[in-house]
Amino acid sequence: MENTMSGPNEGDVSPSQLIDARISEFSDWRGETLARIRKLIRRADPEVIEEVKWRGVPVWSHAGMICTGEVYKNAVKTTFAKGASLDDPSGLFNSSLKGNTRRAIDFHEGEEIDEEAFIALVRAAVALNMSARTSARSQKKPKST
């Protein structure tokens, strides 16, 4: 689900266009890595919603936040909002491992991305978000009259 640009004002720029601009800010491996991660997220979940928060950080959501894409000098970090609750059989998570909620993957220059494992992780995050939403709905008690 993508917004379209409706005018020349900055406020009219869609989140997807802002992410495009963010990627183009980095003409090195970091821009390429962020673009590749984005492509994999979109492949894993064609219904993903793109947002930009926290001074330009790309955020991908579906029934809740899936992950972010942050760019640093030596890494592109993908932080999964509920990563601690996800199975990671391929061992992709390599950062933020001690927290109770989030987990992250730091991608460094020259590293290969295990695309199938990453896609599986994104799909697991979406499934977790969807199950949490379904569970929350089923726990609501009907109002008495």
What does this structure look like?
By secondary structure, this protein is of the alpha+beta class. It is built from 3 helices and 5 strands; from the N terminus they run H-H-E-E-E-E-E-H. A 5-stranded antiparallel sheet has the order 1-2-3-4-5. Strand 3 (65-71) and strand 4 form a beta hairpin. Helix 1 (15-24) runs antiparallel to helix 2 (29-44). Residues 1-9 have low confidence and may be disordered.
The counted number of beta strands is 5
Averaging pLDDT over every residue, what do you get? 88
Strand order of the largest sheet: 1-2-3-4-5
Q: Uncertain segments of ≥5 residues (pLDDT<50)?
A: 1-9
In this structure, how is the largest beta sheet organized?
5 strands, antiparallel
Mind telling me the C-alpha Rg? 17 Å
Q: Spell the H/E element sequence.
A: HHEEEEEH
In DSSP terms (H or I, runs of 4 or more residues), the helix count works out at 3
Strand content: 15-25%
Shape descriptor: globular
Structural class based on helices, strands and sheet pairing: alpha+beta
Terminal CA distance reads 39 Å
Question: What share of residues is helical?
Answer: 25-40%
